[in-house]
Amino acid sequence: MIEHVLPVPPAALFIVGALLIPLLKGQLRKIFLLFIPIVAFVNLLYLPQGTYWTYHFVGFDLIFGRVDSTSLPFGYIFVIMAFLGALYAIHVKESSEHIAAFILVGASLGAVFAGDYLSLYLFLAIMTVSSAFLVFSRRRKSATDAGFRYLIFHFFGGSLLLAGIILYYISTGNLYFGLLEGNELYLYLILIGFLVKAAVPPFHTWLTDAYPEGTATGSVFLSAFTTKTGVYLLVRAFPGTEILIWLGAIMAVYGVVYAVIENDGRKLLAYSIISQVGYMVAAAGLGTQMAINGAIAHALCHILYKALLFMGPGAVLQVTGREKLTELGGLFKAMPVTFWLFMVGGVSISGVPFFNGFVSKTMIIASAGLQGEAVVYVLLLLASVGTFLHTCLKLPYYMFFATDRGIKAEEPPRNMLMSMGLTAFLCLFIGIYPAILYNILPYPVDFVPYTTEKVVEKIALLSFTLLGFWLLKDKIAGQPTISLDTDWFYRKAGPAFMWFCRNPASVFASWKDLAYAKICFAFILLFRHNSPELLLTAEKRVIQSRERRQLASRQPAPLDSLTIGFSIFMFTFIVALFLLLLVFGKLVP
Amino acid sequence: MNISQHFPILVIITLFTGAYLAPLAGLWKRKLCYPLAVLSALLSFLFSVVILLSVLEHGIIRYHVGGWEPPWGIELLVDPLSAFMALIVSFIGLLAVVYSKDYIAGEIPDKKLPAYYSLLQLIIGGMLGALMTGDLFNLFVMTEIFSISAYALVSIAQKKGSLIASYNYLILASVGTTFILFSTGFIYMVTGSLNMVDISQRLSALESPWVMYNGLILLVIGFAIKSALFPLHTWLPDAHSIAPSPVSVLLSALVIKVGAYSIIRSVFTVFGPGLLEQSGVVTIPVTWMASLGILLGSIYAITQTDIKRMLAYSSVAHIGYILLGIGLASTASMTGGIFHILNHALGKACLFFCAGAVLHKTGIRNVEEYTGLAGKMPITMIAFTLAAISLVGIPPTSGFMSKFYLAIGAYQESWIFLAVILLGSLLSAVFYFRVINLIYFGEPEHKSGVREQGAEIGGVVHRQPTTDNRREAPLTMLIPIIILALGSTLFGILVHIPLSVVEPAVKLLLGM
Amino acid sequence: MNPVVIRTVTRILVPFIQLFGFYIIVHGPVSPGGGFQGGVVVGASMILLALAYGAHEAESKVSHHVRIAMDSLGSLAYAGIGLLGIAAGGLFLQYNIIPLPLPPARVNGIMIFLIGVAIGVHIMALVLSLFLHTTEETEKDD
């Protein structure tokens, strides 16, 4: 029976599901929210590899289901994450947030399974809009602004991508999305489009800007999908591209540096995403079978532990309404379960053995070592230390211990704890039993994470970091300031652009009208006495009796007055032009 | 003889008859005007559907009015492009008539209802006439008919500034019609004919191209004023924003498109693509002005606070897309440009209808006051969102597909035009998403303090859906809105339906 | 100036002007002129009346409602004659095939005459309306 219904396109399942959410109320909706991801997961299990759902669409071939060993792992983890996120957010009563989240999941699945550029662009655009709606859901000024910047930034990236797609289409005549090689312009445009999605510096500012502004539950969804879709796209189209190795390595360290000095808990985690995605980008750049495996494995693990990490401060925000580290502290007594579950995420991201970060991160670092990229190897190792420092030590220390500020708190709602518990279990399970992860990777894995050498090396490294933190913990306390990042430019660019629109452009327009009006005024004076009597009477009546009142009560708006003058000026101008043409037409045979 | 053969003339005559029946009905019972107007608009819509199907099946329809053979008599010439446009015009015209019932009751005095419905049918009939005719002078006459109706309709509500807006529109558009008349006379003087097909044959026999260019330039400038091509757009923002909303729809979605159609006709049918290839005397300036219009129209729209003015400036940008596609004159760009006529008509009509519904129910014109309207008028606001997304050009809406074709055609000419199209989309995203953001997530000003506190405590503001203050517009207004929103979304997926008409039209125009 | 002279002259002239106007309309099919020209002449006679006796006089002779009715009926008659062509199996405005028991030339003549009358009725109301509306001192805000 079930074989006849399934498989259906995973994206359709979520997007149609999202549209049904507003129709449901109360308990039924909660069940529905959890039911959709479960159905989707079963659906994926029934989805054999191959290419499905190809449509011939006005001269373009759309492929909605390219299921292979690269896209399938992303599909699994996205669906699992949708379940965990839905569970975490199930208490939220606003349907708009659930709808945006489910559409985001659906579009991400669509993008991952898309086999051509047109449907890929379609899903990326939907992702952009739905993510922005998740940020808007916070309903406060800063969130609105951040969401807006997010939207514009991604539309900008999308425009470059679209330009690349069009160039690609013109030069190749098809829209098939696959490996890209060569030295064409479209290659770079598409690469930049993907780099924006993957938040590679200097295109990363949307991430640290928007993610901390999401709602407690929305950020969990945000953290999982967009950047990992970006990683998938890079793995798919640009494996082995030299520049990605360096971008990734720099990104890993860059994210760590900013995370260490960051004060907002979730912004710190956002920087940490950049750092972790750096590993994946670097691995995609390395391009060996092991590195690609590592990139995908790390993306999968990252989604889990990063979601867990976002759930922690999210729960704190939900309960206390605070998110700055300098305003938090001493919550351990009130929220011990939250703390321990958060710590599972913390140790996972740091790559402590027997947690899932270890089994994937070591794979990437090892493949960098095997390639002989010594500098990259060191940079990635360094970033791993920094990650341990800020996520596993600094963040929980200042949030749950440090100075007790006497904040009233309690454990978050049960569904949040359940979701965190489940995520923590998955982190631990994959860490202890990595074969389940390795089996779904595209290439055969002959990598053994648990060798004595690797475990000892890691533990030694982490122990030293722990020691260092203990000695210096007061020095790296978050400062209640905003650290200066490249987002300064575009935070300023927005207002500057609006200023440009309001001032020079409008002034230009009004100045133009004024100039025309002056010329035309003279023109009217010249011909006033020759005007036919009737026109004068009619004009007098219309303009004087009625419009005088209207004019008196009208706001002076530079843009909309004076157009009569403009029109008459244009008339004379064009007639003059025409006469000139006529004369030249006669002169020049 | 088959009755369907007469549909090209009947589609026009139905509306003109309706237009003259309205004042008569007004003398007897004013309530009759509305059903009569709906009936005649519906009939002409049905006729247009049949015409389109018949054109697709049997090719071009020629109809000799009065049995006089061209070039002496007036010929109606219906090719895929005019049938396509006629369907758009009669459909959106029908919706505008339907929408008028409840909207216009509060807007204009009861005494003027017959005049209003009469003018409404005249403007639609005039546009259909301009689309159907194959005669240059007749085109001028029909252009005058719908333009004069438009001037009157802009000022019919007699609100603040409506006379100034109408007067500005009248002056500038009359300059345009004067040019068209000059050019018609000029062409008649040179060729001795007024029939478009006949003229194009006689023109190709002319020796001096300058004679031809003079006629063409005047004609295109005249129609460029009608279609509000930048920098001849200055009449548009006032007229489109001050007119009653159904009239704004007609002006913004249809009238300027008919201007664009007339440019296509004069450039490709009267003069023919073969003659133009020697020189880009018209197409190059049109292309550049259209590009400027896309950018500056969007920038001006960003600065607006009045929703209808914002939409009006957005129309300046979108007419830029259409004329850019036409000016580039390649297959892909023409397909995109003509397809965009449909998309912009659907999207902008929907947006103006939504703005009208909001104005009707709440009296809000200012964008800043749109905060939280999603709770009050959910259906209208969802429609607004869909239409806005279509106009920004986000897939899977129809606006994306036309911009995609346009972009392909633009890049074949120059990367600058591609950049302009993408940048224009980005700019339009700025002002449309500003409104969408306010609609769904905006906080009313006076409650901001309370809300802010709520946000601080909970992280999420749990706002109960407010069912008590839902105030959707009446059904006659809501149904056109829903139809248009669905249309602008569905045609993004069912692209093959409009393309099956657009593609033969483009092939015919480019002489392939 | 004494309006008596003007009024007397007007009273004498108006019937002749109108007669001339009707003549132009009726004689349209065979000589220069026709509905439009004749209609303008008749309309002008009413304008003369309005100039001499005031707008209200003309208004009372041919009221707003009558003008609207004439205006609409004239146009509708024109369209109706055009549609007769279709009804008779020809093209729009192709009136030579309308089945009347007369030779085609006569049918044409009759139809052109009828069209002339229709246009004439339309135009005479229109010309007077235009004049009366543009000279209205203040717009009635009712």
How would you characterize the overall build of this protein?
The complex is a heterotrimer of chains A (589), B (512) and C (142). Chain A has 589 residues and is mainly α. Chain A has 3 domains: 211 residues, no CATH class; 243 residues, no CATH class; 76 residues, no CATH class. Chain A contains 22 helices and 2 strands. A two-stranded antiparallel sheet of chain A has the order 1-2. Chain B is mainly alpha-helical. Chain B has a domain of 231 residues. Chain B has a two-stranded antiparallel sheet with strand order 1-2. The radius of gyration of chain B is 23 Å and the shape is globular. By secondary structure, chain C is mostly helical. Chain C is elongated. Chain C has 5 helices and no strands. The C terminus of chain C is likely disordered. Chain C has one domain. The longest helix of chain C is centred in the last third of the chain and has 32 residues. Chains A and C meet through helix 21 of A and loops of C.
Features:
heterotrimer; A: 589 residues; mainly alpha; 3 domains; two-stranded antiparallel sheet; globular; B: 512 residues; two-stranded antiparallel ribbon; 21 helices
Topology overview:
The complex is a heterotrimer of chains A (589), B (512) and C (142).
Chain A: H1 2-5, H2 10-20, H3 26-45, E1 50-57, E2 60-67, H4 71-88, H5 95-113, H6 117-136, H7 141-172, H8 185-197, H9 205-210, H10 218-237, H11 242-261, H12 265-286, H13 289-320, H14 336-350, H15 356-371, H16 374-400, H17 414-432, H18 435-438, H19 452-472, H20 487-527, H21 533-553, H22 563-587
Antiparallel strand pairs in A: 1-2
Helix pairs in contact in A: 2-3, 2-5, 3-4, 4-5, 4-10, 4-13, 4-17, 5-6, 5-10, 6-7, 6-10, 7-8, 8-10, 10-12, 10-13, 11-12, 11-16, 12-13, 12-15, 12-16, 13-14, 13-15, 13-17, 14-16, 14-17, 15-16, 15-17, 16-19, 20-22
Chain B: H1 7-28, H2 33-58, E1 61-64, E2 75-78, H3 80-105, H4 113-132, H5 136-155, H6 162-191, H7 196-204, H8 209-226, H9 236-242, H10 245-270, H11 272-276, H12 283-303, H13 307-328, H14 331-362, H15 373-376, H16 378-392, H17 398-413, H18 415-441, H19 448-458, H20 475-493, H21 496-509
Antiparallel strand pairs in B: 1-2
Helix pairs in contact in B: 1-2, 1-4, 2-3, 2-4, 3-4, 3-10, 3-14, 3-20, 4-5, 4-10, 5-6, 5-10, 6-8, 6-9, 8-10, 9-10, 9-13, 10-13, 10-14, 12-13, 12-18, 13-14, 13-17, 13-18, 14-16, 14-17, 14-20, 14-21, 16-18, 16-20, 17-18, 17-20
Chain C: H1 3-26, H2 35-53, H3 55-61, H4 64-87, H5 104-135
